[in-house]
Specification:
CATH architecture of one domain: 3-Layer(aba) Sandwich
CATH topology of one domain: NADH Oxidase
Mean pLDDT: 95
Number of strands: 4
Structural class: alpha+beta
Shape: globular
Low-confidence stretches: none
Largest sheet: 4 strands, antiparallel
CATH superfamily of one domain: NADH Oxidase
Order of helices and strands: HHEHEHHEHE
Radius of gyration: 17 Å
Strand content: 5-15%
Oligomer: single chain
CATH class of one domain: Alpha Beta
Amino acid sequence: MMSMNECLEAIENRRSIRKFKEKEISESDIKILLHAAQMAPSAGNLQAREFIIVSAEEGRKNLARAALNQEFIMEAPIVIVACANMTRSEPRYGARSALYAIQDATASVMNILLAAHSIGLGTCWIGAFDEREVSSLLNLPEHVRPVALVPVGYPDEAPIAPARLGERIEHWEKW
């Protein structure tokens, strides 16, 4: 097995966390996560993404309901909602701008997950939610689309890595 640097180790050891300790997250740690999100690549460096940090109990409860009643979401001290700003890249990219905005937002989510893991926090990428309900709850403008909910907290579990498909998903040169 090859030796791993810190980045590869974080990629290898990060897990989706669905049980959190009752411990607040400092604003400085939240700022670390948001900075990591902003450092993700984006189409044309237009950064067509926005982040809403939900810490109020009622807000987290509503997000859990909107996420098909995934109750563990409300146990996290915060939920970061990653959104695609659908118009920020439109002048440059036209019809493909919506796709690029979604890619920008999702690239930033991976950075949040890895940064959180690196400072001892746990996260879970939630993509199963009622987009209209989340948009309404957060008062999002029409051109902003929620693409991921990320509950963040101190892990209260240590799940093992699920099996991966390995080389079965690799295609060299063509399918």
